[in-house]
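Hi R.,

Here's the chain you asked about this morning:
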Amino acid sequence: MLPPQTILEEDYAALLRHKHYTLRTVEHKLICIRRFMIWLDKNGMALSECGYSDVLSFLKKLKDDHFSLANQNTHITAIRQLYESQVRVEKLAHNPLVNLIVKGFVKRLPHDLLSTEQLDKIFDSYKPQTDYQLRNKVILGLYIYQGLIRMEMNRLEVADVNLTKGTIRIRENVKLNERTLTLAGHQVLLLQEYIHKIRPQLVRQSEYSKGDRLFFTYANGQTMNETLKKLLNDLKKRHPEVTSFFQVRSSVISNWTREKPMREVQYMAGHNSLISTQRYQDVNLQDLQASLNEYHPLK
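And the predicted structure, written out as tokens:
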């Protein structure tokens, strides 16, 4: 019979896999809940006996140990999901941490955002010479025009693309909501060539099954992470203004807020909260204020 701690961790890991977390993230979250379980044990407390105020005491311990606000929030998220996993297998009746977050931590957006014109130039200057590079240009377009994240890129399937309607379905994930986004005309043409001509050739070149995945590597890996990393490094060499795909996504959403209603941008970005979307509008306002201060300083 497995020890209770092992069963608990297996229940927890099963929930995270169900939510499509990567193996690395699961391992990181397990470290967090093990730290919490050690704290419970030192205080002679079982998980089922621990309540909201007790978790706040654990949070104070993290703060006293100089854990950052971001790290405190990471622990709280992990513990909240630990309770969720126990509710899921009907070992606990409720999750006491549904609404607990550590206030004061705001994820900063980059201020070196790229304009629509810059993003268009980056896309247009990428000239594919091979089948794999054409695939990469399709991927680059989804970053630049739809503002996807890596997790979404890895989970795309052929059926998510509707060439007739010129749309692509982005599946719900642990960070963002499901949404259906419009493709630019040149993206439809590229995707049509990739899906009907290039992708079948790439499938035949590999010895491994690729299933219905839209993008895949030559090897047996289940993610495109290494390929996306190489693509980013290539872009950085050609365009020093590019720093990360997070910067690209932030730029896309920021540009949307200049052109579209905020609720529409919220949907397109996949944000759960309108507040998350409004942060991108705030960056635009800060940039405007900085420009006004530069050219029209108050005397």
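The beta strands are 161-162, 167-170, 179-182.

Let me know if you need anything else.
M.
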